[in-house]
Amino acid sequence: MNWMVWTMPTAGFFSGIALLLAGMTVWQYFSPSVERKGFLPIVTTRGDRLFIGLLTSAYLHLGIIGFTEFHVLVATALSVIWIAILMRWG
Amino acid sequence: MNKIESNKGWLFVLPVFIVVAFSAVIPLMTVVNYSVQDVFDANTRFFTGTEWYRDMLNNPQLQGALIRQFIFSFTILAIEVPLGILVALMMPKKGWQASLALVLVSLPLLIPLNVVGTIWQVFTRTDIGLMGWGIRELGYAYNISRNSGDAWATIILMDVWHWTPLIALLCYSGLRAIPEAYYQAARIDQASRWAVFRFIQLPKLINVLVIGVLIRFMDSFMIYAEPFVLTGGGPGSSTTFLSQALTAMAIGQFDLGPAAAFSIIYFLIILAVSFVFYTTIMHMQKDKTTSKSGE
Prior knowledge:
The structure holds two protein chains of two kinds. By secondary structure, chain A is mainly alpha-helical. Chain A has two domains: 32 residues; 56 residues. Chain A is 70% helix and 0% strand. The termini of chain A are far apart. The model of chain A has no long low-confidence stretch (mean pLDDT 89). In chain B, helix 3 runs antiparallel to helix 9 and helix 11 runs antiparallel to helix 12. By secondary structure, chain B is mostly helical. Chain B is 74% helix and 2% strand. Chain B has a two-stranded antiparallel ribbon with strand order 1-2. Chain B folds into two domains: 62 residues, no CATH class; 170 residues, MetI-like fold (Orthogonal Bundle). Chains A and B meet through helix 1 and helix 2 of A and helix 1, helix 2 and helix 12 of B.
């Protein structure tokens, strides 16, 4: 695994994503997702909303890293709030 | 209505899943790892955090390449899609003429990318190339290695020549799938040629056009070999698109960290554009089916 030059933050990030996917699978198994329409302009399932949330969070991180002086964890905190809102009301 | 869900199907997908893990997921994770470090060799590396991302997002060369990339992709789409439809409409419908037209139209698609670049490189030479020499003889000082306008026009022309056939073939197959009854009904209503196109052919073509536009967008967004061979990204950096800028950084300067950070940004752009595009189309189709069942 040395050639993959792992670091703690990236390992944590990918473990987080893997846990998230596993969690979503288990959740889907016990209570299947129903398509619904929230504040997003399209009908979405749980997985759709998670994907949209992660993708927009990536852009939020890029924006904050590239064009502001805030620490990257500010972006992460905002993303968590944003994904929670999106999952609940999106 | 209760649908019984069987998850046994996933077992059959497992081999593909493993292959994709090795061919896509693991390399992508490695790129992410590289993007947060300065790696000299396996044992000498320094954690840099978000520094490369900040550098890349504020790098004027890459910003320039990104803007040029979008201009290029949308320009070729704006030309190739209408032109492809037009070619498909004009192609013969049956008999040996149809087969001949199909072969002739699809010829450019069979040529490898860097060979296309070489063909156009020779074609546009002002001493021996037919096009370059011809334009010079007409009195215009055509020069793709000096004039960036000429270089752009040539690269767009080359892409149109190479890829319009793809749109044309897709549309041709879409057109052939329209039942004759629609045209008979249109004749009874004395519909004009334009009305037939607007209300029969175009709606039936939407599905293939969607695929065509998506393929062409992604492909043109990753274009590398053709402009590399034809202009080398010049004059200056006026025709340097994203993948060439990235290659120059990763291979030429061996700045793996910044190149990795930039790859991730590149990947996110393609992912976002493709997702928006795909969702819009699926949404349009869902609307269509619900409005139909509501009738």
